[in-house]
Amino acid sequence: MTHIGILGAGRVGANLAGTLSAAGHRVTLGTRNPEGAAALAAGPDPRIAIADQRTAARSADIVINATPGHTSLDRLAGLRTELAGKILVDVSNATLDADDGLPGELCYPGSSLAERLQAALPDTRVVKTLNTMLFMVMTAPETLATPPTAYLSGDDRNAKETVNGLLGDLGWPPAWIEDLGGITTARATEAMILVVPHVLRRHGFKPFAVSLAR
C-alpha cells in the first residue's frame, strides 16, 4: 500500500482519489478548503483523508498534481520542501481559457508545465501522464470503444516504473501505456490539449482520449 497525496479536489482529483483508494492505497486529498470537503463533486468518502495541500504533500509517498494547470507552478513551487525526494505525477494542462471557458492558448508555448515543475522542483522526480483525455477516462479507460493511450514523460526511469504501476491500478494495461522519454517530451502531449475544445464544441462533454493508433 502506497500513501498517495492528491493536490486538487475538483473532478479530476476526486475521481483519482476514489479509484486509488478502492485499489488499496492510502489516499489524502489536498484541498485549499478542507472544511468544505463534503461539497466535493465525488461526495465524502470515509476511506479518503482530507487535508490542506501542504499537509497532503508532506505526508504522502507519491503526490499527484491535479490543480488547475495555470496555477500549478506557483502553488507547487511553494511546496519544494514537502515534495523533495518524492515522485510528482502531473496530470494537469496549463492553458488560458477561451471566451467560452474551454481550454485556449498554452501558458508555456515551446515548453510545458511538466518541464517548469521539474526545473522549480529539482529534488522531485516529475512524471507527466493522463493529461490527454477527459477526467473520467483516467480511471475507466476500458469504457472507450477504441483502446486509449496514456503517455509517460519523465527523466527518472524508476519513477516512471512506479507510475506505470499506479496506472495499472487505475485500469491501464501495459499495452496502452506509451513511454515517450524524458520530461521535455511533455511539451508534445501538453500541446494535444489544443484539439480538445474543438472536439467538445462539436460533440459535447463525452468521454474521449487523444490516442495513438497502430
Approximate helicity band: 25-40%
- Class derived from helix and strand content: alpha/beta
Number of domains: 1
Average pLDDT works out at 94
Oligomer: single chain
Task: Please provide the count of β strands.
Answer: 10
Q: Uncertain runs with pLDDT below 50, 5 residues or more?
A: 38-42
CATH topology: Rossmann fold
Gross morphology: globular
Proportion of strand residues:
15-25%
Radius of gyration: 16 Å
Sheet with most strands: strand arrangement: 3-2-1-4-5-8-9-10
Written account of the structure:
This protein is α/β, with parallel strands linked by helices. It has helices at residues 11-22, 53-59, 69-77, 80-83, 113-120, 135-138, 157-169, 186-191, 196-203, and strands spanning 3-7, 26-30, 48-51, 62-65, 87-90, 95-97, 103-106, 125-128, 150-154, 177-181. It has a single domain (3-203), classed as Rossmann fold (3-Layer(aba) Sandwich), CATH 3.40.50.720. A hairpin with a 5-residue loop joins strand 6 and strand 7 (103-106). The chain is globular and about 40 Å long.
Quickly describe the structure.
By secondary structure, the protein is α/β, with parallel strands linked by helices. It is built from 9 helices and 10 strands. Strand 1, helix 1 and strand 2 (26-30) form a beta-alpha-beta unit.
Keywords:
single chain; globular; 10 strands; Rossmann fold; 9 helices; eight-stranded mixed β-sheet; two-stranded antiparallel sheet
In terms of topology, how is this protein built?
Layout (H helix, E strand, L loop, with lengths): L2 E5 L3 H12 L3 E5 L17 E4 L1 H7 L2 E4 L3 H9 L2 H4 L3 E4 L4 E3 L5 E4 L6 H8 L4 E4 L6 H4 L11 E5 L2 H13 L7 E5 L4 H6 L4 H8 L11
Parallel strand pairs: 1-2, 1-4, 2-3, 4-5, 5-8, 9-10
Antiparallel strand pairs: 6-7, 8-9
Helix pairs in contact: 3-5
